[in-house]
Amino acid sequence: MFKNAFLSAALIGGLSFSAPATAQDMDPVSQATFDTAMAFMGAMGNGDMETMISLMDDEMVWLNGGDKTVPWIGPWKGQEEILEFLQTFSANWQTTKWENEDVFARGDTLAVFGQMNGKMAKSGADIGEFTFGLRVKVKDGKIVLWNWLEDTFAVSNAYHGR
Fold it and tell me: Which of 12, 69, 102, 132 has the maximum number of C-beta atoms within 10 A of its C-beta?
């Protein structure tokens, strides 16, 4: 389908998303949600498409709102659309900073909050550090929702070189 390395260079920029962490009081469902989401992030960070695909539900939804003139703004539904979107995204964006600051799992939902920065291939512009949020839903060991929240104004400005 796609080359395993396409995400590691452009999308992730060599950064690793996964953070080994567990909570003593996390129930088994929450722990499984945490493990699945962190494995998906780690696979993205390593450009491991096989693992990413194995963790994606066939009908997974990737939500990322914002300026529709930016070619990777979704929503994206289903593995095929998401993989096409990721290829477009990785050709345009290089992550230069990714730091998970808070990660919470409860039941089938995971929330991640942190800081990131990136650089746009089209304009060469640095986005500037911003806060991100991520909501992930997991069902039967597969990601069914990846709801990405970022400073879409800063991303759009950097993409358009403003």
Answer: 12
